[in-house]
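Lecture 7, part B: from sequences to assemblies.

Below are the input chains for today's worked example.
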Amino acid sequence: MTIDRRNFLKLGSAAALLTGCSPLLRAAGRPKPRVVVVGGGYAGAAAAKYLKLWGGNTVDVVVVEPSSQFVSCPLSNLVLGGSKTIDDLTFSYAALKKNHDLQWVRDSVVAIDPERKKLVLGRSDFGYDKLILAPGVDFIYDALPGLESDAARKQVPHAWKAGEQTVNLRRQLESMPDDGVFVMSIPKAPYRCPPGPYERACQVAFYFKQHKPKARIIVLDANPEIVSKKGLFTKAWADLYPGMIDYRPNSAVIEVDVAGQTVMTEFESIKGDVLNVIPPQRAGIPAQLVQANNIDKRWCEVDFLTYESMVVPHVHIIGDAVSAALPKSAHMATSQARVCANAVLAALTEQPIDASPVFANTCYSYVSDHMAMHVANVYRYNQAKKIMLSAEGGGVSDAPSELEADYARYWAQNIWSDVLT
Amino acid sequence: MCISGSAFAQTPQYSPHIQVLAASCAACHGTDGNSVGGTPVLAGLDSLHFIRQMKAFRSGERPATVMQRHAKGLTEDEIVGLAAFFATQPRVAGKLPPSVKLEPSHDH
Ligand SMILES: Cc1cc2nc3c(=O)[nH]c(=O)nc-3n(C[C@H](O)[C@H](O)[C@H](O)COP(=O)(O)OP(=O)(O)OC[C@H]3O[C@@H](n4cnc5c(N)ncnc54)[C@H](O)[C@@H]3O)c2cc1C
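Predicted structure of the full complex, as structure tokens:
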């Protein structure tokens, strides 16, 4: 294990832990408890900010994130549609770090020792008092023969983590023949952003309608029906893009012939000019390192009052990695982050926690460049079942509208401001 | 630096329930209700006005695209608690984070 000198100094009192693990040394070397947040996506950035906002000088907060930039998945389908560029969705972490006095380590976690409360990164290692994992999702390629190599994954992008992959898919759509076929596939739920794939079909159709009106879209859905906003998407496809989107339910992709530009389901082989396979997903790698992904070996079971793992004590998990009957959305990730931040601070200061958390979720989908629709719910902790349940009054828009596209934009601006400043 | 260093060590002004619930509004209304634009700024909003609006959303008296869903999901006590929370938040200009160009190396 090499210890990066710079990080070592930056983390200062980590020395106490590295040189000897006696509680005495620890107490002497570290007057303030240290909370480490792994992952600086929606969940991790929100957790780090609110730990400092509410905890002030009583805690040191360290964020471990390999990427130097934050690229928003929300709105990234609009890059495919052409009404946004990836740069519109790319931000620096500078304001977040500075405004909240966060210690920031640009690195990946490669090992975790939850018993000794130690983290191993690519270039350093150090200890923590509380650990919050916000690792997002990891793609499961095991059941997708044909997509083993990096080259194959470039030719058949997922574009389900915004960034280079999104730009890659957009370029492929641009260079597709005018009467070409775009084939996209959706994994079985649960996956990141339930309405996201159907919004993607709308956005690609929006681009085709203007630039390649003879092109077609085949949507292969592993699910028996549209997972979210079903009536609204069905109607939007029929009204705005008649005859363009061929939706096939119960169609899980089982193999990809990359050279032949063909995807296989149990029933058929479908050739496309551009292929977009969204693989099944599981909790991100940091959660797998401690085997916190105990549900189907995919998602992490947590206590919804604290977001502590049910199988690995003292490790908290938030965001898409969590197993819950809740949509895996950015709004949800930030809500979970704040419940967790509050519970972690309460534990450190021996204050009572919120015994009945309530939070909201609003998810907008754009059906074109200027029309959007929502699904919104309040979720309330159910004491008897020990889970978050949707409260009365939730639901979806009556129809997409321009007004809701404005609200979708305000949502994005405010959530970016909330997690990144 | 930490302007809102309302440290836990100090007496908390609000129950953790209201503090965490209020923070959930941030996705659309900004941190502590300081919206960057578009949606109403809730910070410093008169508490009676807040309560009236939420009740009007709930009854349908004030038509809305999405607020009726949130208003209906909350209890009366929560609405009163949120009103008190937002009324006492200082108004500061909500800011967008700094934009940057995507680095070519940024790939997953
Ligand atoms: C096309 C698309 C559209 C979407 N639209 C919406 C929308 O309109 N509204 C909405 O609410 N949600 C939307 N979502 C969902 C939203 O993006 C996710 O729910 C959200 O990003 C989850 O946040 P997270 O923090 O759990 O994961 P992420 O935001 O993915 O963050 C995980 C972080 O962990 C880091 N990480 C991974 N491994 C390691 C490691 N070993 N060490 C350290 N760090 C690591 C990653 O670099 C990453 O920064 C959309 C998603 C997609 C794909």
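Note for the exam: Residues 55 and 71 of chain B are 7 Å apart (CA to CA). Keep this in mind when comparing with the next example.
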